[in-house]
Fold:
Amino acid sequence: MSSEANKQVVLEAIDGATDRKNQVHRVMAQGDFVVTHATTTLPEGGQAAVFDLWQIADGQITGHWGDHEAIVEQTANGHTQVDGVAVIDTTADTDATRRVAEETVRTILVDNDFSDVEHYLAGESYIQHNPRFADGVSGLGAALGELAKSGKSLKYSDVLDVVAEGDFAYLRSVGVFAGADFVFHDLFRVADGRAVEHWDVMVAR
Structure:
């Protein structure tokens, strides 16, 4: 099936498959995988930002991984966890986008190498939707520094999945935050060879 057909399978099944009401903001597909980024109403009440990764075979959902974080009213960057650019630029080079996003995560978050961060992130124009971090590379650096000082260091150990389409790339990774094992869902929008916008969900395993 085509990527568009796989997307449709997920969009038609998402509420029933997750047992919650979802407002999907972004949907992307590559090969047998579909990623949805949504705001969801949880069964117990309250709103959350959620990433779901779906595996499709012969028009059916055969695998699903997903996590959510509560919506935060006041964020460090002034953005919400789900706003920003939502339309995929399908003319962008998907392979290049995938490469940039994976190199960004592996260099900065797996290797903790900040020596040339502006090679990967779009300087002070970098738009951040993680509620803990301000915009720009300065906001990211300051927040990570403060976390480290307080004993809450953040380090990824492995990238499990990468799905890219056009100028968007999603990665599911594992690692440690504040001494606990975490799963990380990161979505990047890439332009001119660098990540220009970032959304994520991070949850303890």
